[in-house]
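Reopening this ticket.

The earlier resolution said the output was attached, but the attachment link was broken on my side. Pasting everything inline this time so it's all in one place.
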Amino acid sequence: MENSENTKKSKKGTNSGTIAAADNTTKNTTDGSTNAKSDQAKSSAAIATGATEPSLSVQRKPMKRRAWVWKFFDEFIDENGKTRAKCHFCGYDLVAESRTNGTTPLKNHYNSCKMNPVNIKV
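Inline output:
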């Protein structure tokens, strides 16, 4: 009698383990990734509806320039592929790479430009 109870308990534990394993195959993991079964279900649903998966090479929309100094400069790309800016007042070309220089050179030129109406001393 004692052996049969132990086998029932072990079978119970085994069954509940397989049920839990089956439940885990359809749920997301704690880190937010999905497993193979749910991915397979999604892809078969996409095929049934005729939808295609989005490509990974989708590019973001370029960000709008927010610095106030861009009102006084025109942006262009030089022959080396560098982003440059041209002053509206004197036509001087400045480096305007956002990662390396930022807008500090533009601001400094705006404040010292001889043709800028704000800087002309009477």
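Reporter confirms the inline version is readable. The longest strand covers residues 73-77. The beta strands are 73-77, 83-87, 93-95.
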